[in-house]
Amino acid sequence: MPRISLPLQIVIAICVGTILGIVLGPICSIFEPIGTAFIMFIQMVILLYIPSSIIHGLGSTSPAVARQLFRKGWVFLFFMWALIFLAIFLLNNIFPKMEIIFDASKTHSKFEESFLSYLVPKNPIYDLANNIIPAIAIFAIIMGVALMHLTHKEPLISFLERINNTIEKVLKGITAISPFGVAAIFANVTGNLYFKDVIHFGFYIFPLIILVCIFTFWALPALLKACTPLKYREIISEFRSTCLLAFVIGSPSIAIPFLNQCIKRLSNKYEIKDKELHNTSQMIVPLTYTFTQVGNLLILFFIMFLSYYYGLRMDWLDQALVSLLTIPMSFGGPELAVNSVSFLIEKLGFPDTALILFDKTSIITQNFQVLLSVASMTTFAIILLLGYYNRLTFKIAHFFKHFFPIVFILIFSILVSQRIIFRYQKPESIGDSLKMAAVLPNFRPAKVYKYGEKLPDIKYRTTIDDPMTRIFTTNQFFIGYHPHLPPFSYFNKNGELVGYDIAFAYQLAHDLNVTPVFIPFYYSHLGEMLENNIIDIAASPVLLSAAGRRGMNFPQFYFQQRNVFIVLRQRKNEFINLKSLQDNPNLIIGNLGYFELISEQYFPFAKNVEIIDSWHISHALDEGIIDAMYWELALAQEYCKRNPEYIVIDYGNAIGDTYLAFPVKFNAFAFIFYLNSWINLAHDQGFDKQMYEYWMLGHPPVLKRTRWNILDLIRNKEQ
């Protein structure tokens, strides 16, 4: 019986994993450890492979050959880098742009201030241990160039070659079991992947795939056709031989032997007779593999997508520095992309959950990234070979004939996409579509009273002074809420009361095994409602510093965040200098929900104006009743998302922090003791983190609804 080829094994593994995911659905999570272990085995050796392969590739070259190869190839290498960067920056324009937060706390970001430490290899051992890929690559280049000029370098070259061969042997062994890892990964991803998620990330996935196809089947062949005697059909034939297996497996290292075969075929075709041909080709392939994996530069596009997705603006300098860093990060295979992306996510200040997005999307995008990398490797290897032996035939007319249309089509497509996106993109906030049932598995809708609606008969409740006794005697938990404070408490587009605080209230009622009832309140009456036993607790943002107010007491805080200003967008430049604002006696600050207790400390000369409801903020700012609204960051950020004519001014922690807590009756000491224990338990179990990721960041919860799958369909039919 003939042995099944590895590409066919991979295709079968993909099909098996996909079918398992469709049939079993979320049950396929049991395969996640297998897929994770497979990826970890690859990462085990690949980090060392980068410096080793770069040093070997450069060091094994003689200075004369290196200079000749550099002269023949640097223009084309820089051209490919420039072209992919141009395409990425053009594609970045399809993301809707809206600056929500203006950072007035510092002139330069932490990323800009420590940029050199990421690029200059001050301590290579530290860089290796901490996955600082750019510094590792720069260190390897310096060592490789130095080794190139040594006279007696053969023992070291031989040693490095053996290291590379050993690593490649390990990778080959891992590749042999790759069908099992691929099947496990596809089963887990397909079983837990929602079509809605694919659409959700469509701004990133679909443009990337289109860009890869344009470069692989048009731009790179056009470059070869303009510079070499090769015809389009011959170019695609070479691409097919080098790219197909690497694309299916998702690893460019598989293409190395096929690149050697490509060089051998072209040498025979163009009758290149040189006794040093073998040595030259042995230099070209490692250099090509190391420096021309253009597909790895697409991590820049992912970082730009994160900037849009999280609403965290990257200024032009951050974008330029990240672009520069992605060049050394592109050296080596895509297996290191997760290290590079993790590094950039941390240094640019994106949430930790951004790495989850990369894991989700890379299942689809990594193979296309590899396709572009191997196509660029093949292109550059052909150009280096023919250029070194003076076989290039540059046709300038042919060059402009192809590359002007490519750039024109890219720009035209992006402009059309912008119009479509801006026309059909719903202006609603992500929070408008969030639902309580999606994040609370035991959710049952409660009775929610609204402003002006007649409340139930509460005479008996008001006679019971102790909240714990009142709750368990009546089997009802009366919860106060403010309806216009997203993401803490608000009504979504379906009219359901939702939010971060509301989720805590529902979970607390569930743990108490009582029925929740929601009663609206104004901040001016909150203490009175608690003192008169109308409500048992309030589940909307209330400052812990309001403990001195009449009728209220608090357990420990459940949420901490810094305070900011909301101002008219056209007035943002007036609020850059914090010191002048703090000394300004004419500054008028709006406050909602006891925030004046903090603003008075940081702006002692300013006048504070109470804002009764968040609906009144826009009127107060537009009419000049207040100059700025002093608020908590999450509240301010959500308000400006819904009202883009305003912007958040962030001074870091320079104007105070907010500590939110659930207010209860002043003498409810037993209830406070219980709440303290409950809040600690919720934190230990990760409930607060899960709620933060869902209500603040809009990420799907860990405990999702059961996705449709064939197994559940059969079970339901039998029942």
Explain what the structure shows.
The structure is a single chain. The protein has 719 residues and is of the alpha/beta class. The protein has three domains: 6-424, Proton glutamate symport protein (Orthogonal Bundle); 432-557 and 668-711, Periplasmic binding protein-like II (D-Maltodextrin-Binding Protein, domain 2); 559-660, 3-Layer(aba) Sandwich (D-Maltodextrin-Binding Protein, domain 2). The strands form four sheets. Strands 1, 10, 11, 12, 13, 14 and 15 form a seven-stranded mixed β-sheet that branches. The chain has a four-stranded parallel β-sheet with strand order 2-7-3-8. The protein is elongated and about 100 Å long. The model has no long low-confidence stretch (mean pLDDT 83).
Question: What are the SSEs and their pairings?
Answer:
Blueprint: H1 6-24, H2 32-59, H3 63-91, E1 101-103, H4 110-113, H5 115-119, H6 124-129, H7 133-148, H8 154-176, H9 178-192, H10 195-200, H11 202-227, H12 232-249, H13 256-269, H14 277-291, H15 299-310, H16 316-329, H17 337-348, H18 354-388, H19 396-424, E2 447-448, H20 459-462, H21 467-474, E3 476-481, E4 484-485, E5 489-491, E6 497-498, H22 500-512, E7 515-520, H23 526-531, E8 537-538, E9 552-553, E10 559-568, H24 578-582, E11 588-591, H25 596-602, E12 607-610, H26 617-622, E13 628-632, H27 633-642, E14 646-650, E15 657-660, E16 664-665, H28 669-684, H29 687-696, H30 710-718
Parallel strand pairs: 1-14, 2-7, 3-7, 3-8, 11-12, 11-13
Antiparallel strand pairs: 4-5, 5-6, 9-16, 10-13, 10-14, 10-15
Helix pairs in contact: 1-9, 2-7, 2-8, 2-9, 2-14, 3-18, 7-16, 11-18, 11-19, 12-18, 13-14, 13-18, 14-18, 17-18
